[in-house]
Amino acid sequence: MQWRLAYLIFLCLPLTQGVPTYAARTPDVSRRETQLDPRAGAALPGQPNYTAIPNGQAWYDTDGNSIQAFGGGFLLVDTWYYWVGQIFSASTGPPYNEALVNMYKSQDLLNWQYVGPAITVYTPDVNGVQQLTYCQVQRPKLLYNAATSKYVLWAHWELTASFDPSEVLAATADNVEGPYTLTAKGHHRPGAGNQDASAMGERVGGLTTDYSATAKDGSNTAFAYQPVSGSDYPPKVQQYGSVSASDPQAVSYLSQADGYGEAQIDNYWTYELTGITFNLTLKAISVQMTPRDTSFYEKYSPDFNVNAAAYIIRYPTTNRSQVSTTVFTIGDPGDERKSLVSPAISPGLDESSSNSTVFVHSGDAAFITCNTTGGTIWYTTDGSNPTVNGTEYWSGTRISITGSNLTVKAICALNATSSPIVSQTYTVVANTTSVPIFRPIVNLPSGTYSPDDSTFGYQSVKIYCPTYNTECYYTADSQDPDPPVNGTNIGYRSRDITVWQDPKDGSAYLFSASDNIYNRVWQLSDDFTDVVADKEYDVFTAVSREAPTVVRNHGASGQYVYLITSTQSGWNPNQAQYVRTADVTAGFDLPRDNTTGYRNGNSTWSSMEPVGDPSTYFSQSTFILNIGTDASPTYVYVGDRYNTVEFFDSTYVFLPLAINDSAPAATGATDSGLMSLQYTPSLQLSVANSSITPPTWKLLSLNKPVEATASVQLTADQAAAGTYNFSAQAANDGINFDVAPYDAVQQYYQPASVPFYWQVDLGQNYSLAWIGLSFMSVGGSDAVNRYRLSASADNSYWFPLVDNTQNLIPGFQAHVLSGSGNYRYVKLDDYNIVDVDHNKEADWEAGVYEISVYGNAPGANSSAISTSGPTSTTNTTAAPTGTVSAT
Ligand SMILES: *[C@@H]1O[C@H](CO)[C@@H](O)[C@H](O)[C@H]1NC(C)=O
Ligand SMILES: *[C@@H]1O[C@H](CO)[C@@H](O)[C@H](O)[C@H]1NC(C)=O
Ligand SMILES: *[C@@H]1O[C@H](CO)[C@@H](O)[C@H](O)[C@H]1NC(C)=O
Ligand SMILES: *[C@@H]1O[C@H](CO)[C@@H](O)[C@H](O)[C@H]1NC(C)=O
Ligand SMILES: *[C@@H]1O[C@H](CO)[C@@H](O)[C@H](O)[C@H]1NC(C)=O
Ligand SMILES: *[C@@H]1O[C@H](CO)[C@@H](O)[C@H](O)[C@H]1NC(C)=O
Ligand SMILES: *[C@@H]1O[C@H](CO)[C@@H](O)[C@H](O)[C@H]1NC(C)=O
Ligand SMILES: *[C@@H]1O[C@H](CO)[C@@H](O)[C@H](O)[C@H]1NC(C)=O
Ligand SMILES: *[C@@H]1O[C@H](CO)[C@@H](O)[C@H](O)[C@H]1NC(C)=O
């Protein structure tokens, strides 16, 4: 993040109209931004005693460590709430790389005890295999299965360096606190392996909808279906150049000149095998492939712009090498690889039916490795003896064997000393039965390595594939690499997930975001550890939704199931939206798409409606708690506030959520009910009383007189449409959502120039409690506003409240104020807008959806931040319509 600091040095604040001249008088005053810490007494880290949830702030467990449980799930067991979530920080438990899912418990939802990691790289499957080494585990959720008396944890699983696999895991335990054991399927795509004709899932060699950024809809004939190659997991070693449409069967090996290095693990931008702090087993196999299947290319290329690499594919066959296994033990290597030894030339006699030569096919290749750390390899292929002045062997070079035979000789050299020469002869034969598919070769030997060994650095571990025209697959999870063959059901890709048990009948479901365009519901098996092969459909098609979060309003007796999702905008927050259904299973009976086999269940859910502000108050949904009863629910929305500058410092947002089945949505739609989310800087709740304590403050700014920098004029068409409002008044009209930044409903204050100011006259002096700012955000953008807030009693002398001119974080901002000053006027001075991801100006994104000033008349009790919370959520009459930030 150093580059961002560098940027700040050059940040300048131009003085123009609207920029306040700060009073040179003694700042008597002092209602200024304050750090919120709703802990009783002089609580310090290590002595937490929270009386409210500190939204968007560091939140410490009872050991004084910041709570690390993102994308979390909750389960109430007796009187204890259990919270599982992803870990970003090494501040708790084992090193970050080893603890994958943290668990905490609490009886009051305020003070959390660290239970320990629920899932680590050592978590075994039912066969004792540690399948979770070297991976990412996200968005864990917990269920309890009464029939089996087991706790079931589901999560999203990926490789460390890529999201290609798009898999899930399920693990069970007899006790909620563990230990958890993975199911036999380990990590997998839901539905994978089920070959029943009725089973949902993609078949290798079949077709799927093109899920590129532009091709979103299978019914849109502008985009072709894509063939399913099944090559996402296990990953492949990159060793071929791109496929040529004119000669698809030609094989062209990559070389260092291609920028990949040769026989490279994965591609140029991934950092596979870095950050290894645990023993790691690397397994690889070489696989005979089918000839390239050109039928999809022939079918689509005349009418569609399809590329050969994606449409001319081949499939693994069951004709494979033995598994090559390399075990990296992490510890002190001592002198293990320091002594000078001769290199190994592979493949060797151990894979040959002769004891003097290795039978090969023309085009097979030899590779050379040396066990001596820092050793250089020198070699010849003309029968002469290699010397350090001859030809150096570069890691990954294919020594291709053609003609009738070849002899490779090599030495390893270190410190001007050379090892004895080794030699291997290869003989090209036509007899296929005498030549095996050779095992892949790993350039580094098994053994002990230091965790900071450069061995595991960028592109240093390489896997070589000796047999001509085979592909090499590898795993880092102790499982034998087993790529799916033509016809295999590989299930459906699955990224953000949740699992949810319907209180109505006890059945449970997996909600899973897939391919950036689907969001699927899949019924779980009776024991909740797998999906039911045929009970699946898509809630969303052709839209990018993630972070699924589910609740049935009014629990067992409730009529509707609500699903909140966000759009996909990396780690930046965006406008959450919800849909609802009266029957979560209705999509299971829908017909399948003839080509892809998908079931489009869009129509079984209501229209998508916004909840929260355009950045969901700077959060992404992950769970909904009910601390009330079914009849009188008190919902707590749980979201993650990702800190894109420093992920360890990411925080949580727990907010009161109200659901009204019969009210119209904020947009006026009548088929979705009304979900409303209110922001509060700290949430005071009482599990014992099943309640959220209402705040003492009031929204003061709603519809009060404003003045501001001139706003953008509506065009004639916009004025005629009647759905546009860029005036200054739009920033305190109580309407604070944005379904789509470029649709025909645009209601936010859009200044005509930047810098700009906006100020509100509250009508009388107030003791200000906090100010919420919802800035323009184009669909989860990386633009941040840099601004100051100030206040005045007389519209003449302005006192600084907040300086956020070095802001690095996009999305909603809440500034808590403390002190004794009372003010009638509040002003925003916005100096510039910066796209922090690309480090450039983004003034084009200037705008304010809503500025909300909260406080009390002087004399009223407004100082007790820690005893304040939002309005009770049991009262769902939100006014005016469309108000999500105001009550
Ligand atoms: C937490 O604070 C409350 C209120 O100040 C106090 O009554 C209670 O004893 C404190 N609990 C602990 C464990 O410090
Ligand atoms: C790593 O492997 C070594 C050697 O087999 C073993 O002694 C050690 O216990 C292993 N460490 C872990 C955490 O499994
Ligand atoms: C090579 O030289 C380095 C120092 O230059 C020394 O530390 C190392 O032990 C030497 N290795 C061998 C095998 O002689
Ligand atoms: C390299 O090290 C591995 C693992 O210790 C060993 O099996 C192999 O025989 C060694 N090769 C050579 C050429 O010394
Ligand atoms: C090599 O194989 C031949 C027979 O195929 C056998 O006679 C000979 O003893 C073997 N040599 C060695 C060194 O094993
Ligand atoms: C390599 O070449 C250098 C001169 O460039 C010579 O001094 C040295 O003896 C040569 N070494 C070998 C092993 O041939
Ligand atoms: C190796 O091939 C060459 C010609 O390509 C041939 O002359 C020689 O006899 C062969 N050697 C063996 C051991 O087959
Ligand atoms: C091919 O090789 C196998 C095994 O080395 C041998 O049994 C077989 O007789 C050979 N076939 C021919 C046609 O040479
Ligand atoms: C893959 O399987 C399909 C049938 O499922 C078959 O039509 C096709 O020819 C197969 N392709 C290859 C390359 O084997």
From TrEMBL:
Residues 181-200, 862-887 are annotated as: Disordered. The keyword Signal applies. Keywords: Signal. Residues 1-18 form the signal peptide. Residues 365-419 form the GH29D-like beta-sandwich domain. Residues 867-887 have a biased composition (Low complexity). It comes from the Eukaryota. PANTHER family: GLYCOSYL HYDROLASE 43 FAMILY MEMBER, GLYCOSYL HYDROLASE FAMILY PROTEIN 43. This is GH29D-like beta-sandwich domain-containing protein.
